[in-house]
User: Which sequence fits this backbone?
């Protein structure tokens, strides 16, 4: 009888191990599928669930770009940001940027969404965060940039047919004001300094503007800190832990108030 009981318990343990292995394999497969389809991944480690969102290549807006271009489609990113904010299982958002810019209104829409999130958010600029990538980088609650990365600040521009009339110039100016106001409200750089960097005619050969490398972007107050992936992750985990501690206190305060 003892042998049979031991055999049954051993068989049950083996089944549990096999089930755990199957669940891990399914989770890994789902994660790989998520990476392939959306360029994002949700990780679970040390009691924290973090969604990693990548913004790479050119930000595609209302017009489809050529197939050879690496693009981030904003209609794919918007639902992800909303899902992260509304999913109680996800604790925070890590946004990795390596973008040349792209559609101004699409990029600004994504930046506004990230800036409006209640959950902890951290951005990390790798390679480059140029043009409309600048508002995206500063939209997070804490921003990092790699020492080897760079950011290009320049005025709004447009390709294709443009009507040479005063209304067109006014429209450009209003759009530039929207970008300038967003960047200065979500970073430590002043409006005057941002406009000075944007209108610099001494640095770019074929354009107006300024290229800032990692240390310069931090010195100008555009980005909060120099750092790598580990620095950004440590910061996000610290923000998540602080938020988790704050929530019980806020709940207790509401109970006392009622």
Assistant:
């Amino acid at each position: 009888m003892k042998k049979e009981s031991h055999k049954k318990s051993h068989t049950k343990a083996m089944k549990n191990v096999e089930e755990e292995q199957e669940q891990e394999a399914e989770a890994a497969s789902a994660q790989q599928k998520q990476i392939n389809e959306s360029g994002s991944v949700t990780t679970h480690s040390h009691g924290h669930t973090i969604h990693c969102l990548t913004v790479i290549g050119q930000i595609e807006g209302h017009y489809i770009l050529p197939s050879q271009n690496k693009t981030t489609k904003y209609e794919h990113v918007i639902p992800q940001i909303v899902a992260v904010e509304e999913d109680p299982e996800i604790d925070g958002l890590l946004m990795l940027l390596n973008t040349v810019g792209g559609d101004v209104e699409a990029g600004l829409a994504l930046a506004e969404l990230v800036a409006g999130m209640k959950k902890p958010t951290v951005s990390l600029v790798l390679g480059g965060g140029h043009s409309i990538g600048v508002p995206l980088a500063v939209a997070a609650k804490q921003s990092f940039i790699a020492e080897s990365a760079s950011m290009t600040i320049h005025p709004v521009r447009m390709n294709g047919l443009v009507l040479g009339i005063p209304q067109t110039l006014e429209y450009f100016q209003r759009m530039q004001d929207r970008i300038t106001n967003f960047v200065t409200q979500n970073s430590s750089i002043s409006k005057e300094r941002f406009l000075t960097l944007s209108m610099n005619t001494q640095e770019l050969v074929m354009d107006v503007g300024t290229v800032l490398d990692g240390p310069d972007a931090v010195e100008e107050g555009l980005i909060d800190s120099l750092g790598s992936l580990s620095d950004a992750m440590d910061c996000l985990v610290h923000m998540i832990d602080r938020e988790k501690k704050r929530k019980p206190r806020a709940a207790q305060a509401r109970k006392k108030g009622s």
